[in-house]
Automatic annotation (TrEMBL), chain A:
Annotated GO MF terms: cobalamin binding; isomerase activity; metal ion binding
CDD domains per record: MM_CoA_mut_B12_BD
Organism, as annotated: Halococcus morrhuae DSM 1307
Name listed for the protein in its UniProt record: Methylmalonyl-CoA mutase subunit B
Cofactor: adenosylcob(III)alamin
Lineage start: Archaea, Methanobacteriati, Methanobacteriota, Stenosarchaea group, Halobacteria
Automatic annotation (TrEMBL), chain B:
Gene Ontology molecular function: any one: GTPase activity
SUPFAM superfamilies given in the database record: P-loop containing nucleoside triphosphate hydrolases (SSF52540)
Domain of life: Archaea
Database matches in NCBIfam families: lao
Protein name in UniProt: Transport ATPase, component for LAO/AO transport systems
Keyword Hydrolase: yes
Region annotated Disordered, chain positions: 211-232
Family: Belongs to the SIMIBI class G3E GTPase family. ArgK/MeaB subfamily.
Length: 139, 349
């Protein structure tokens, strides 16, 4: 089998979690990822942390992008990370968060396992570049 | 490798997910993996669902999965969405509708993109079905947009094929006439609460009636009316007519779960029919034959790629044609001849 054929597109889950109906950002990012050649699974609105974990595990994604604008990130994101860990999926999934996260909360999320946080004004190209460079290489 | 198989057979969801990834990407080791899956397959009932975009396939799948779960059955779902022919990227949105089985890991839902240029999506689907089967899923649903040969190949991996139609889709019914009619074992008219649902049901009925008449005629020997149909289609109609399966038309409102029970009953009826007539084994044999052929095509294509490289690469061969020194037929013969000779020698010795 040639190298070309085994080259797989980066798989992402773009997830909206919790009581937050603002999905414009998630749509924009899903589309941009698609145009970058990624395979994007979109979760739809109002997902619980359990559902996001279920989706990330079943879809075997390389990248989990959590979009959250409700301010509940300190509760919801750790729940997702713990869930991934339970399935042994935390280590080789790149978790990124997009939305409104105050500076003071960023460090803790990073410590828990979030690789990057993209706030308002983050450039799409930078985000895509970050994913390309940091998506786990799997065999 | 064997670790992955053991974990999959042991019921590890992540191992199943990883195995499907391996299969989907035709990664190194996937062949060994799939071939070791065969020993553990054959227990699941496989259902294919196809229909035009927006007909309600994902919603129906969600409700059917819920119904099976209430019967204590485990479910695997493979949902295939198209990918961009330009970037290869895709947005796979079928998961959005999976709302009734929240947090239930016994519904294993996997989105796949129909990686257009790569081809082979139908064999990857068939192999992914095997992974779900070996994992121990009782029912496996394969969902795809019904818009082309690829999709028809995909749903053929199923024992029972459902075609989903929505009311007011006169054009869809036209499309069905052209291709998908032959493969449907069950029709579902979704959104049956909308205007025009009755008419759609009636149109489908008429089409099926027409098909049945044709089947009857050809089996009594009057072939005159079949100028436009291929011999294969006629043969298929005839066997179906002889086996006596008339695709039922189920009316449903999937969003409200109406008609789901009738639909599942229809699936069970078809399954019973397949078992009673021996059609189930015939289908399995046909599928194995197709798998063998497809694998061999894949493998020989690879071998030929090597040979082309050994002949200086495709560009150089093309240069020969443009310079008027040779032509594609001559090149094909000269690339293939040594391989054919070699194969014949091996066979004879």
């Amino acid at each position: 089998m040639s190298a070309e054929q085994t080259q797989r597109p980066i798989r992402c889950l773009v997830a909206k979690v919790g009581l937050d109906g603002h999905d414009r950002g998630a749509h924009v990012i899903a589309r941009a990822f698609r145009d970058a050649g990624f395979e994007v699974v979109y979760s739809g609105l109002h997902r619980s942390p359990d559902e996001v974990v279920q989706a990330a595990v079943q879809e075997d994604v390389d990248v989990l992008g959590i979009s959250i604008l409700s301010g509940a990130h300190n509760t919801l994101v750790p729940k997702i990370l713990d869930g991934l860990d339970e399935y042994g999926a935390l280590d080789d999934t790149l978790v990124i968060v997009g939305g409104i996260v105050p500076d003071k909360d960023e460090d803790e999320l990073r410590e828990r396992g979030v690789s990057a946080i993209f706030g308002p004004g983050a450039s799409m190209d930078d985000t895509i570049e970050f994913v390309r460079e940091n998506a786990p290489k799997r065999e | 490798m064997s670790g992955l198989l053991d974990r999959l057979l042991d019921g590890d969801h992540r191992a199943l997910a990883r195995a499907i990834t391996k299969i989907e990407n035709r990664m190194p080791g996937h062949r060994e993996l799939v071939s070791s899956l065969y020993d553990h397959t054959g227990n699941a009932e496989v259902i294919g669902i196809t229909g035009s975009p927006g007909a309600g396939k994902s919603t129906l799948v969600d409700k059917v999965a819920e119904h099976y779960r209430s019967q204590g059955l485990t479910v695997g779902v493979i949902a295939i969405d198209p990918s961009s022919p330009f970037t290869g990227g895709a947005v796979l949105g079928d998961r959005i509708r999976m709302a009734s089985n929240v947090g239930d890991m016994d519904v294993f839902f996997r989105s796949m993109s129909a990686r257009g240029s790569l081809g082979g999506v139908s064999i990857a689907t068939a192999d992914a079905v095997k992974a779900l089967d070996a994992f121990g899923k009782d029912r496996i649903i394969v969902e795809t947009v019904g818009a082309g040969q690829n999709e028809i190949d995909i749903v053929k991996t199923a024992d029972t094929v459902t075609v989903l139609v929505q009311p007011g889709s006169g054009d869809d019914v036209q499309m069905l006439k052209a291709g998908i009619l032959e493969i449907a074992d069950v029709f579902v008219v979704n959104k049956a609460d909308l205007d025009g649902a009755d008419r759609t049901v009636q149109e489908l009925n008429e089409m099926l009636q027409l098909r049945d008449d044709d089947g009857g005629r050809s089996s009594t020997g009057h072939h005159a009316g079949h100028h436009a149909e291929s011999a294969e289609a006629v043969a298929l109609q005839r066997t179906e007519a002889e086996n006596g399966w008339m695709p039922p038309i189920v009316e449903a409102v999937a969003t409200r779960g109406e008609g789901v029970e009738e639909y599942v009953d229809a699936l069970d009826d078809h399954r019973a029919h397949l078992e009673a007539t021996g059609e189930l084994e015939a289908k399995a044999r046909a599928r194995y034959a197709e798998e063998i052929r497809t694998l061999l095509r894949e493998d020989t294509a690879e071998l030929l790629t090597e040979e082309i490289a050994a002949h200086g690469g495709i560009e150089e061969l093309v240069a020969g044609v443009t310079a008027g020194e040779t032509d594609p037929y001559e090149i094909a013969d000269s690339v293939l001849a040594p391989i054919a000779d070699c194969a014949r020698q091996q066979r004879d010795s």
